Structure formats: structure tokens, C-alpha cells
Amino acid sequence: MNQPIVDLRSDTVTKPTPAMRRAMYEAEVGDDVYREDPTVNRLQERAAEIFQRQAALFVPSGTMGNQAAIKVHTRHGQEVICEQRAHIFNFEMAMTAAFSGCLARPVWAEDGILTWDLIAPYVRGRSDHRARTGLVSLENTSNLAGGSVYPLEISDDICDRAHAAGLPVHLDGARIFNATVALGRSVVELTRKFDSVMFCLSKGLGAPVGSMLVGSKEFFEEARLVRKMLGGGMRQAGVLAAAGIIAIEESPKRLHIDHANAKFLAQGLAEIPGIKIDPAKVVTNILFLDVSGTGLTSFEISTRLAAQGVLANGVTPETMRMVTHCDVDRDGCARAVQVLREVLSGPHNTTSA
Ligand code: TLP
């Protein structure tokens, strides 16, 4: 009866591994605002090396990384083109407006995957009437579009054409290592054309805290100033960076397991009456299920699942998200399917009781 909780709310819930905790304990530290933390410096150097870029900056969160990049690339009064479900547009506390003074210009794309043809009509140059476009931002994998991935030709094409139009391109690559696994391409191949890349250490890679912002030396220096403006100048941050080093060196090797578990979960869920999900579209570690045929809202389902030790969030009343990660194994996924089946076959209208 005392089964462990199956937490499918997000890959942000992952706990540091014993190796990470050991490295954190043993980390050599210094004051990183003085650039004197050897462990932070090592993490930044390794990230830059892995992405084959001039520099990488350790930031406390993905949100800070994205927003620092937007600030560096844009000027007040410009527009930032992104997909309608983009994290920068939906989940970052309107900071594109509040901090950078820019208007997000969301564009809808099937499966969250923009193309230059979809972007081009919204690109605006100098005009007496309309705000100028300052930046294009892509998200790979696309979280709210169900962990979908950008085919390399499409993201390369967007970067080339944006650059030809004089526009920088930022990548919200919170889960870029999941994209590398799904596409069988290296992180260098997937990101080399972007002007800046943010990726998270604290999601599927399992570190407790932190993200990286990768780009040119000049971009790094500017982003460092913005990080400080945002209060993200950390001191003995080596205790965090130590876990980050293990996250980038070791964790990408096991992400295929999370993807296989997500597929397994999707296949099981697809067989439950009232649930709609296309397992073929589940290519990384995120899946969305349409629960509108169950007679319950996603929020009601979420509460009932939680009572049985399975955690998953409702996103809209009709949709739920589940995310696989290193702290949920195949048995946990099987249990989630079984518990959802039981929850939905029980009495729905408890209000009459
Ligand atoms: N995503 C979180 C929530 O904020 C939705 C999650 O549970 O998935 N970019 C993308 C694509 C993200 O999914 C997230 C976090 C971020 C940026 C921000 O990262 P943090 O949480 O470190 O600020």
C-alpha cells in the first residue's frame, strides 16, 4: 500500500543524485561576482566547450536566462516574435514587457514548430507606424506543444533568414538535450546558428538549481551585467555548479530512458476510454492528454490522482500534462496508467453523494 509517489508534474521535480550531492559537498568555492569561484568557472568553461561557443554563463533559473538574453538582444519598444505557447510568453511573468519593454508577438504553429513562412509576415523593420522586430525566439523542445522538436533544417532556415533580415535569434533550449536525443544530432548541430542559447541543468538533467546561457564572449559580458541587475549575481555558487557539471557530463546519456517511458505511458493512456492522446506525437519526455471525453475536468482528475499517489497537473480544464524524468521509472508509469484507469472508472458525480 505504501507505494512511492509517482510525480509526473514536471522534470523540474527531480532530486540531485548521490554523486551530485557528493560533488556539492566537496566543491571548491569562491566569490563568483569577483569571477573567483573555480567550480562555477569550470562549469561555464565546460558548457562553452560542449556547445563549441566562446562563453557560457551560469544563471539561477531558465527564466532569468531567457529574460537576460531578451534584454541583451532588444531595445525598449521592439517586438519579440515567438510561438504562441512559448514559455517566454506564457510563464515568465510578462518580463519581456516588464523588464525589456518589448511586446511579445506570438505566432501559432502546428505542434509549436514555427517556420520562416509563419514568422515572415510579422517581421517589421523601421516604420512610422509599427514597432520594429527586435528578436526571434524559438523553443526546442516545445514544452506546451508536448515536447515537440524542431527539425534541424527548419531551425537552421529560421536562423539564416532572420539573420539576413538583421534579426538575432535566441533559443529557449530548456530541454535541448532531450531534442538531441530525439533527433540523433549533437547539441552543436542543433544550436550553432543561434545567437544565444539557454538550457536548463535543473530539468531532465537533474541538477537542483541552475541554467546556462551560451553565446559569444561579448554576449556573455552583457548577460552578466543583466544577471546582476536581476539580482542573480551569486557568490559561493560553486556548491550549485558542482551538481551542474555532473548534470551536463552524465545526464544526457540517460534521457532516452525518459523518452521510452513517455512513449510507454502514452500508449497505456491511449487505451483508457475518454482519454485522447496520439502516442506517435510523443517524441521526448512531455505528453499532453485530452481528458474532455471523461466527464471530469483535468483539475478534478488531478485531485483524484493525487489521492492515489500519482501527481500530474491540469493545464486547461480539458488537458493534462505528464512529464517523465529520472525519478520516475517504468513501473511508476505503469502505475500512473492503472491509477488513472481506476479513477475514471469510479463514480464520477460524487456531488450526488
Ligand atoms: N518550465 C516549467 C514551468 O515553468 C512550466 C515546467 O514545469 O515545465 N523554458 C521552458 C521551455 C520551460 O519549460 C521552463 C520551465 C523554463 C524556460 C524556465 O525555467 P525555470 O523554471 O528554471 O525558470
Q: Given the helix and strand composition, which structural class is it?
A: alpha/beta
Largest sheet: 7 strands, mixed
Please give the CATH architecture of the largest domain. Answer: 3-Layer(aba) Sandwich
Number of helical elements: 14
Q: What would CATH call the class of the largest domain?
A: Alpha Beta
Can you list the ligands bound to this structure? ligand TLP
Which residue ranges are poorly predicted, with pLDDT under 50 across at least 5 consecutive positions?
Answer: none
CATH topology of the largest domain: Aspartate Aminotransferase, domain 2
Following the backbone from N to C, one meets helices and strands in this order, namely EHHEHEHHEHEHEHHEEHHHEHEEEH
Work out the radius of gyration: 21 Å
Mean pLDDT: 97
Strand content: 15-25%
For the secondary structure, the number of strands is: 12
Helix content: 25-40%
Find the CATH superfamily of the largest domain: Type I PLP-dependent aspartate aminotransferase-like (Major domain)
Number of domains: 2
Physical arrangement of strands within the biggest beta sheet: 2-8-7-6-5-3-4
CA-CA gap between termini? 26 Å
Shape: globular
